[in-house]
Amino acid sequence: MCGIVGYVGHQQALPLVLDGLRRLEYRGYDSSGIAVLDGRGGMVVEKRAGRIENLDKALATDHPGGITGTTGIGHTRWATHGAPTDRNAHPHLDTAGAVAVIHNGIIENFAPLRAELEQAGVELRSETDTEVVAHLLAAALGAPSAAAPARGGADLATAMRAVCRRLHGAFTLVVAHRDHPDRIVAARRNSPLVVGVGAGETFVASDVAAFVEHTREAVELGQDQLVEITAAGYTVTDLDGEPVEAKPFTVTWDLAAAEKGGHPYFMLKEIEEQPAAVADTLLGRYVNGRIVLDEERLDAQELRDVDKVFVVACGTAYHSGLIAKYAIEHWTRVPVEVEMASEFRYRDPVLDRDTLVVAISQSGETADTLEAVRHARDQKARVLAICNTNGAQIPRESDAVLYTRAGPEIGVASTKTFLAQVAATHLVGLALAAAKGTKYGDEVGREFAALEAMPELIARVLGVVEPVRELARDIADAKAVLFLGRHLGYPVALEGALKLKELAYMHAEGFPAGELKHGPIALIEDRLPVVVVMASPRARPVLHAKLLSNIQEVRARGARTIVIAEEGDDTVRPYAHHLIRVPPTPTLLSPLVTTVPLQVLAAEIAQSRGYDVDKPRNLAKSVTVE
Ligand code: F6R
Known about the structure:
By secondary structure, the chain is an alpha/beta fold. The chain is 35% helix and 23% strand. An 8-stranded antiparallel β-sheet has the order 3-2-4-1-10-9-11-14, with helices on one face. It is globular, with a radius of gyration of 26 Å. It binds fructose -6-phosphate (F6R).
């Protein structure tokens, strides 16, 4: 939610900030804004509702000669407090127009702070929670003390620390001050912030994608830390001003990974990248008969003692958890509950130190999942994170971490990270089975080999999806689509429906096919498309037969049947209006192939309906508010 970028260096700030914003637009895209310091006590601020193009146009009209200055900040917004209007767009300024603030997150105590400012005679100009920070900062700077002299670099940081100590909630805040044009101050709590360290230039951003074109040397900021950046480097302290040693890292991917590579949308490129995403996630994970995680702060005995697993996640990641349940229970005989993270902590789940909570999140910053992790740890449960973002908050607060190595995912809808999550949960199941002795090393090796064969099979599906595109164009005008599956086909049906809802804005529902006659069958009407994820006739003959009956039931009531079935399964042919083939796979791994045509279907329908596949309305890539 919200993308943030700041720059201090030797180049003109505005183009760099705008480029950074474009790379962060996946985080929020309902308004955007910039502030640039000219170094002579002037600050230019421009902000507009809508996509960054609107800001570009405003800059061209209002500043035809360009804006010079080597220090700048920029923001792309996903609205929480106040509608997406010009006025509510960031940056927000204090009354004198000296301080510019951009923010990601929610300041939970903004109402009393706002009341306090209003009582002191300050006139607030927006409906946002952010604006209070600009005024509080101005007040803190205007009331110097021995610890906070009125001018000079240190006072901005000192004032900022004092303000941050008063804030509750989640924030990444970045501040520029027209009297301090050589620096930017930024702070974080529960929202991401990374520093990019170049030669004679320094960046801050919500995500390395904003600056990876200029430097791959980065520093991650911890909880409740503040960084002051200048062209020469950076200084990190905690909110009391104590120096902190920050953790540097090198970004392992380059700009090309964050570009579209000839595809009209990132999502289409990311669908194509799925074989590599799964292969990379598996690389080097099976060594000498054991599964290797990235960070293991759990010992073998603690894993052996696990007697219950909870998977907590949201949206697509939750669907990967539903899939994980089948493999983990099958291999370990440990009961697995899968729960939406947003519900988990509010119902007092039964947790103790022998419970393993597996938190799945591509971003590693989803507020619901993060709070579920914190609740689990408060209750003494062990937490293992599956995450696609190195050093994000969820892995930092977990006892063990397995990173999916899907690379940057820019399309708002998760695709390659989903498949990588499925592969990663299988690794967790195997690690647990090995620790508990429910599988011998050689059995783990065989399961791992089956996983390693999957990238090739996923590539095979991608090679034959052209008919899915045609089908998509054919059904793009339908009012609704139903998705049915049994066993592992059920979470796949849920994922297919979610993709269609979020991308094509169509009513779409996933059901267990057995539930059909308990209600949903009433929805079937003439020409309604119904997608059925078949089971394998070899591996699951009983489920296969039942699904065949379900297809006939909906077809008899006028539905257009779209069936995803294994190559060679000819029994379905007479009942399917459209047949989509996937290669035979071991049952537990089947979602890795059956999901792919559903992703393509949703993306193609969205394109046919004229929607932006990468930036569906009302959504953002990373949901850092509850
Ligand atoms: C759907 C989608 C979302 C996310 C969910 C969790 O395509 O992307 O449903 O899966 O918001 O996000 P992460 O995985 O970042 O915790």
